[in-house]
């Protein structure tokens, strides 16, 4: 069974972590998705595993859209789990959390990979 090429953790609130697993190929990513229960789009280039607070991405398919899409699934779960009111008193906290996780993601990813701007 292949292992992710890279795994790192993003700090959510000092107590919780959001794990990011980067797979070498889309095929490995999809095999892992099936192994974990196969929820969601079968042709996905990434997925969010809500049971383990983990985002899975395929190395050659990480684009401007893939991480934010999967992060949104996490943010929705966080809002429901912790009863955050996205349009009321927690709206800034949610935006701050998304911004913090996005910044951490890119810093961690850029430590490990050279990123091409060809799809920007």
Structural account:
The protein has 120 residues and is of the alpha+beta class. The chain has one domain. It is built from three helices and four strands. It has helices spanning 26-35, 66-81, 91-112; strands at 6-11, 17-23, 46-49, 54-58. A hairpin with a 4-residue loop joins strand 3 (46-49) and strand 4. Helix 2 (66-81) packs across helix 3. The longest helix is centred in the C-terminal third of the chain and has 22 residues, at 91-112.
Show unreliable segments: none
Order of helices and strands: EEHEEHH
Structural class category: alpha+beta
Largest sheet: 4 strands, mixed
Strand order of the largest sheet: 1-2-4-3
N-end to C-end Cα span: 34 Å
| Approximate helicity band | 40-55%
Please count the beta strands (DSSP E, at least 2 residues each).
4
Instruction: Please tally the helical runs, counting DSSP H or I stretches of 4 or more residues.
Output: 3
Provide the gyration radius in Å.
Answer: 14 Å
In terms of DSSP E residues, the strand content is 15-25%
Number of domains: 1
- Give the overall shape: globular
Q: Average the pLDDT over all residues and give the rounded result.
A: 90
